[in-house]
Structures are given as structure tokens and as C-alpha cells.
Design goal:
CATH class: Alpha Beta
Shape: globular
Number of strands: 3
Protein name: Phage baseplate assembly protein W
Pfam family, one: GPW_gp25
InterPro entries: IraD/Gp25-like
Number of helices: 2
Strand order of the largest sheet: 1-2-3
CATH topology: Nuclear Transport Factor 2, Chain: A
Strand content: 15-25%
Organism: Thioflavicoccus mobilis 8321
Length: about 120
């Protein structure tokens, strides 16, 4: 069973389920935007890019974010996805992360983009 993210109940009052594509996207989002130390039973879980969202946007911040994203996704989801590329862009006050990956079970290639606003320039 693949739980939907964010957690919710379906029309029957049961835990909502997601198809594999939505499930993996939810897992990626959780890794990206969970700060290490945020989860009590898994204090090392997360990528740490959340702390970069309020730094002034720059190529250095984007490169650091790309490094953090690649490492975290390989560590936490490496058994489910094979990363093909990670692209991090900064524009105005937004950090945009685009991830291309292959689903290990099927070999199907997916691309997902995630955005978070940071500090104003």
C-alpha cells in the first residue's frame, strides 16, 4: 500500500492511497523539505535545503542545494529511484529543484519539479 502525501483520509474514511508515481513524488518532497533533526525517530532524515531557502539566492546556494539534494535522495530513496539528473535554479526569491529519475522497479523515467520561496532579494 502506498500512502498518499500529505497524509489524508479518503471518501471512505480510510487512509488515502496513491499510485506509484504520486507516492514517489511525495517521498521525494518529504526528503527535500524535511530538515535533519525534524523527525524524532530519524533525526538524520532530510536534505537540509530548507535552511538554504532564506539565504540570498546565488549560484553558490544553488550548487550547495544540488549537492545536498543528490546526497539525500541517494541515501534515502536509492533503493526506489535511480537519479539521472538534479537541476537547482534560483530566480528572484524562489528555489526550483527539478529531478529526473528512473523508477527502479519499472525503469520508467520521471521528472518532478519542486519550488519553495525564499528571502526577497
Amino acid at each position: 500500500m502506498n500512502l498518499d502525501y500529505p497524509y489524508r483520509f479518503d471518501a471512505r474514511g480510510a487512509t488515502a492511497e496513491a499510485d506509484e508515481e504520486a507516492y514517489l513524488r511525495g517521498l521525494i518532497e518529504q526528503v527535500l523539505f524535511t530538515a535533519p533533526g525534524e523527525r524524532l525517530m530519524r533525526p538524520e532524515f532530510g536534505s537540509g535545503i530548507q535552511q538554504l531557502l532564506f539565504a540570498p539566492n546565488s549560484p553558490e546556494v544553488a550548487a550547495t542545494a544540488q549537492f545536498l539534494v543528490q546526497g539525500a535522495l541517494q541515501q534515502w530513496l536509492g533503493d526506489l529511484i535511480a537519479l539521472q539528473s538534479v537541476q537547482v535554479e534560483t530566480a528572484d526569491s524562489t528555489l526550483r529543484v527539478t529531478i529526473a529519475y528512473a523508477v527502479r522497479r519499472t525503469g520508467q523515467v520521471q521528472t518532478a519539479t519542486f519550488e519553495r520561496a525564499g528571502a526577497a532579494p
